[in-house]
Design a protein that fits this description.
Blueprint: E1 12-14, H1 39-50, H2 54-59, H3 103-127, E2 135-138, E3 142-145, E4 148-151, E5 157-159, E6 164-167, H4 170-178, H5 184-202, H6 205-215, H7 218-247, H8 254-264, H9 267-275, H10 288-301
Parallel strand pairs: 1-2, 2-6
Antiparallel strand pairs: 3-4, 5-6
Amino acid sequence: MRWEDARRSDNIEDVRGDGGGGGGGFGLPMGGGGLGIGAIVILAIIGYVTGIDPRVLISGIENAGGGQMGQSYSRPGASQFSDDQAAPRSGASRRQAAAPTDQMADFVAAVLGETEDVWTEVLPAQRNIQYVRPKLVLYSGVTRSGCGQAQSAMGPFYCPVDQKVYLDMSFFNDMKRKLGGGGDFAYAYVIAHEIGHHIQNQIGILGKVRERQEQASQQEANSLSVRIELMADCLAGVWANHADEKWHILEQGDVDRAMATASAIGDDRLQKASQGYAVPDSFTHGSSVQRAQWLTTGLKSGQIDACNTFAR
């Protein structure tokens, strides 16, 4: 994936090394956008190693309230463009901010900048809604979010309460070493998936789904969660479609690696790895085939409306 020339976003709160905020566990609502793409992945790995059913681990995590910590960092030479205005994306003008101190954080800032510039154009054009740029919080181990305590074992997630994405970058190492994934575009897909939840929040889908889940059976609530997650996969594909059209970010093998990652985190594969069999009624993110299918749909169409998982 070509990302080195991308504009770096300054909508990042880097709280790594700040120690986190203790007390309580992070709530994992099944659906509604609070559950990150990596939550079930990491819990399944833990369950596989310890022999504990991942569903027991999930149910043992209690909700906890809490604020957020840390300060947004403003780098020298940070972009002068407001949240309502995308930066120019050609030549040297794309680089408006000094790079973060480490390469992986620099990569995250570049990908976030790409999502900002794409959705600032696409969301108004396709839905007549102005894009509100979310913050992305980089943390290590544990921190606080508007949805409760965030822990690295949960993987990346989006909190609709404070409209922030939370990312412990150690998840990328887990992708590479434990899930057979990895590669820049696969990592970008993870970030874009969480931004997809933010898009869902902006167009009002997350709130509606939460209301339905409150009145639904567990099986129906799980089904709604699957639809939300598959839609976020599709929206990640929509972002990649437009980013590649504008800046030719994709290189040979990128899409294949992203598809392999989407397939690796399918509920059926994770459940079979942890307990030897799959229980479709308990799926919360979708099967391997579904996840790869919806990412492909977004990549090919570039259209938000093509991501309507609730109509199929």
